[in-house]
Amino acid sequence: MTCCVASAGDQLVAEPAHAAGKLLARPRRPTAPATQTGTQRLESGSLVHVPSSYQPGRPVPLFLVLHGAGGRGERILGRIRDAADKAGVIVLAPDSRGQTWDVMRGEYGPDVAWIDRALGQVFDRYDVDPGRLIIGGFSDGASYALSLGPTNGRLFSRIVAFSPGFAAPGAVDGRPRIFVSHGTRDEILPIDRTSRRLVPDFRAKGYDVHYIEFDDGHRLLEETVNAAFEWLADK
C-alpha cells in the first residue's frame, strides 16, 4: 500500500488512518531513482541524508529520526549523521508541524500525515530495505518514536529512544526491538518517572528492550549515539 495523502496548498489533509497513528507509505521499487548522496531537502521540506556508500539497486536501512520539543530535524540530523553515514544508513529528519509532535498536543493526525508524505518521497527515490526501517528520536521525539513505533510495528523493525518521557501507542501491530537510553541526572524528564517505568512495562508486554543509563543530564551524547548504532548493526 502506498501513501495516500492529499495536499491543499501547503497543508496536508490527513487520512483516517493517520488519526489512528498509522503510516501508509511502504518501501517499493523507486519510481524516480536518485543517485545523489549527502544531505538534501525533499519537496515536503524534510531533510534526508544519504550515505556516501549508497548504490541504487542495493537496499539499505532507513532511520526516521524525530527531534525534541522546540527542535528541528536539521539539528538532530547533525547529531547522528556521521554515525549513520559510517553505518550506511539513510536518515529522514522531518520537522513537527507545531512546537512538538501531534500526540503530545492531544491526538494523532497532522504529523503522521507529514511523516507519511516524507517517507513516500524517500521510497520514490531510494532503495530501502523493508526489513530494516528504524524510528527513533530524542526527548519528545523519543516519546513519539515509542508511540508510533509499536503502532506501526510491521513497518519499523526497531525503535531508538534517547531520553524518552512516555509512550502513547495506538492499536499495536507487531513488536519492534527497542533501544532506550537515559541520563541518571536528567532534570527535564527525570529517569525514575520515565525510562525506569517505561522499560519494565515494555518488557512485560513482550518487547525485547536494550536499556542503558549514563551519568549525565538531558543530553544526546556521541557515545550514546554510537551505542545505538552498534545495537542496530547487531542482527
Could you characterize what this model shows?
The protein is of the alpha/beta class and 235 residues long. The protein has one domain: Alpha/Beta hydrolase fold, catalytic domain (Rossmann fold). It has six helices and ten strands, in the order ββαβββαβαβαββαβα. The strands form two sheets. An eight-stranded mixed β-sheet has the order 3-4-6-5-7-8-9-10, sandwiched between helices. Strands 1-2 form a two-stranded antiparallel sheet. The radius of gyration is 16 Å and the shape is globular. The chain starts with 5 loop residues before the first strand and ends with a helix.
Helices and strands in order:
Elements: E1 6-8, E2 11-13, H1 16-19, E3 38-41, E4 47-50, E5 60-66, H2 73-87, E6 90-93, H3 110-125, E7 128-138, H4 140-151, E8 158-162, E9 177-183, H5 195-204, E10 209-214, H6 222-233
Parallel strand pairs: 5-6, 5-7, 7-8, 8-9, 9-10
Antiparallel strand pairs: 1-2, 3-4, 4-6
Helix pairs in contact: 2-6
Report a brief summary of the structure.
This protein has 235 residues and is of the alpha/beta class. The chain contains six helices and ten strands; from the N terminus they run E-E-H-E-E-E-H-E-H-E-H-E-E-H-E-H.
